[in-house]
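Q: I'm teaching a short session on how sequence maps to structure, and I want students to see two examples side by side rather than one. Could you give me a first protein with its sequence written out and its structure tokens following it? Keep the formatting plain so it prints cleanly on a handout.
A: Of course. Example one:
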Amino acid sequence: MNQAKTTSETLQDIDTLGQLFARRVAATPDGEAYRQFDAASNTWIGFTWQQVSQRVTTWINAIDSLQLAHGSRIAVLLPNCVDAVTVDQAALARGMVPVPMHAIDTPGSIGYILNDCQASILVVTSRAQWLPISTVCEQYPHLKVVVVADDAQAAETSPAAGGPRVVGMRQWLAENAQPAGAAPSTQTVTNETHLAAIVYTSGTTGKPKGVMLTHRNIISNIKAVLARVDVRASDVFLSFLPLSHTFERTIGYYLPLAAGGCVVYARSPALIAEDLKMARPTVLVSVPRIYERFYAKLQEKLGQSSGFKQSLFRAAQQVGWRRFCRANGLPEGAAGSALLDALLWPLLDRLVARNIRDLFGGRLRAAVSGGAALSQAVGQCFLGLGLPLLQGYGMTETSPVVAANAPDDNWPATVGRALEGVEVRLGENSELQVRGAGVMQGYWNRPDDTKAVMTEDGWLRTGDQAVIEQGRIRISGRLKEIMVTSTGEKIPPADLELAIMADPVFEQVMVVGENRPFVSAFVVLNRALWTQLAATLKLDAQDPASLHAAPVREALLARIKEASKAFPYYAVPRAVWATLDPWTIENSMITPTLKLKRNALHARLAQAIDAIYQRNA
């Protein structure tokens, strides 16, 4: 029996997340639970499970002071940190429902969520963060207190008429502290059917929906993942995806809690490369975009290297890829000489592959990629160089993991096999449908939306098209995102965009073509590579007009055609529009999980879109 199976079986009597936390504290009270950077002392600080438990108790006492009803909602608007964990665990211990929100989401979205879920408590980082939220809605009738984590910015003010009290975290916790020797509070009864979170979906095309996840939903997913992948008490996770994302909550938070691993909270996305080398994680949980950024920088550096180094890199990637294919029984493994590859690999590993793995800390046992499809070029590159990339598939509505590859059964063109206890089938138009203990209870206050995503016999419609081959699932498209041109051709925009972004000059891509005679690409360029391209075309990279010069359009289109050559001719973009200004969460062009907000982008680029089709009419 493998270690993953054994770890999963030790949790068979666990029904709630509160039980999971209590079991962990009792089992390894002095083990390192979390590590985060303290800017004041410029040092990394570790926290044991016992220390975290004590902090949770102080929060429980403060929550009790409000005498909230069982099931009341507590909204958390914090970056990934120990405070976010303690608020979450205290809420769960008291039968409350955490509502995690992205720390840099827009005030309008946050205000909508607060009123939609009727939050009683909001925890924010600073008063400056709360101020724009406080004015975006006329009132928050259910909000009783806003707790500000940064006490330096938390000077208390009297609440406006009918408004919430705003108070610093330290003050609020201190005024509700229990005296030494006081009897412990009565434990709230929570069972597996109670809500463990309301997680709001990203809202790429409309207002976000609150996905209701129960303790049973999440616990079942943790057990199923542990039965598939070996997670150990000695593992170190680097956490940088937002805890408002169910992928990170389950795999980057509750999973190491179950196994007893340590979670290191990255300082910021900009410092991930440095934090990887410091933390030297054994498990990395990420969306494809992070791997794609490493790949783009790697390609940029290779482009500046000598021909010999480029050849050496290609050889290492090709030999490593063939070895990976043979180890996992992939058809491509038949290519080349296994004996020759075995002789060459030690040298290629020492000269090339090990250096690439060191960029990720040098000791990864699992590099998990989920949330979106990983491009074939990126996957083959890193797998060939020995990075243990494991793709999976899931969604917020399934808590989230539905399927995943395993270290000893890894087919990167697929998202692996369904987890234990998860049933999958193909419905109309090859739509993947899911049934199991991890499927949500429904959407908060949206019975019609809930009914719309469930079949009459109780299966969740994922909206994704799939193929199931020998038990492995391959996602082939998105039903709702199929783009239909005016000539009737059907094109999956996300797949096309992913292929174009394999070229490192393109940081972001959105293709347009719905009810249009052909496909166009709207792209955000890598600034450094744009400067190089402009120089080769003898143009001034600092002049905004250069971006729209005819030679630039021709050069970019040539690269786009090369990147999308595997697509039918009608899917290859015939026009391009470029910018250097990125689409960000802050300017509301992408979601907190880095997905394009297509409606918002179409509105912003309306004039440019019309101009392209008028020019090429």
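Q: Perfect. Now a second example for contrast.
A: Example two:
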Amino acid sequence: METLVEKSDVIPGGRATAAPLGDETPPGARWHLLAILLIVGASLLLFYLNFSQRGYLMHADMTWPLSLDRMAYAVFHTWYQYGSMMNVPNIQRILWSVPFLAIAKVLRLSGSQYLLMLFVCTFSLAGISMYALSYSVLDSIKSKGISKVVVIVGAFLAALIYMFNPWSISHLWSFWMYPGYALLPLIFLFAMKVVSRPTLRNTIVLGLLTAVASTSPMDIVWAWFIIITYCLFYLIVSRFKQGSFLRVVKGLALTAGVYLLASAMWVVPYINAILARKPMIATYSSPVSQGMIDALSASNTIPNNLRLVSGWGYPINLVPTGTFPILLSFALPVAAVIALVVLRDRLRTNAAVNYWALMFIISILFATGTTFILRKPYSYAVLGAPGSSAFGWIFRVADRWLALVPVFYAIVIAALLVKLVSSGRAFSGKTTDEKVSLKDEL
């Protein structure tokens, strides 16, 4: 796997983030394959009961038809057969569900076996996606003399953190919001490539990744929030130089074009409804109220957000009880703070780390919902802002913004592990790496 972090991933005046050349022979693909196999193996541990018991993976909103034919039926029609109920949400998931359905048909799997395959593969993909991003970032900030096998170990830890953190585990049950979470690291990885080199290949990959990840409204928000905010971050760091601005505009335009083309199956019906000034379905008063938002945000305090245990407690109440579980719940934020202190000279010059540090702060605040300083603006965004009657319900559950936090934890804690298992000078900052600043690059 090549390093995908570009020279542009450097803060002006900082050290180069490009990996040193000629200091060692890169490990073969077998090391990456081994890491991927271990990630898949780790994902199987979460579903171990399904290998000894029969039954369907389902719960409340995550309720599935009881046969493959009925599951396939849901994505073959724009409208349900009975009641003329709009079926666009299922069509929105075609790029994700149909390949799995096709594999299940070929292998003659049962409905329960199909669901197990769907969950295991999606959960594994979250780890593989994070592995790819963290390997690129870690490899770009390491000093000479550090074996890339050590970087692979760090990237593997990042994958485990991203998969098994409390927020990830507690949001897997609703499933169709999870594919977007699983692909977030890869989307960011290619967003960096598009910003620095908006080639047709890069934009096609980013557009397709974003389209495939758009299996729910919140997934669309996450993906485009990451893409747009990183573009703004890049422009600010580069001081809006003309070359940078033109690259960003070109990359965004091509990516959006690919996305709309790949998502036309559900985008076109929505656009037609807007142009015809007719709703896709009958208009009802919004069920979202101030009381609902307050209830869903009740546990979203800053300490709970930092520990990734916020939420409305259904079906999983993550808030720990007992001395040891409470202390253990602080492991991720404490380890992240230690990493920032120990590796501050290295991490502060890396654009990817700085961007995710900013997203960490924003996510922690957004996820407080109506329990902290954003009470009035958050309530207005959900209930009173223009378009809130149609889209405000998407943001009613504030803890969904915490999806961005595990990326930051995974990267910095993995960097700390590399520091601990490598030589003393690994991340000391005492390196002869060539200094290349973003300012010079642009």
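Q: What should students look for in example two?
A: Point them to this: DSSP finds 22 helices and no strands in the chain. Also worth mentioning: Residues 111-141 form the longest helix (31 residues).
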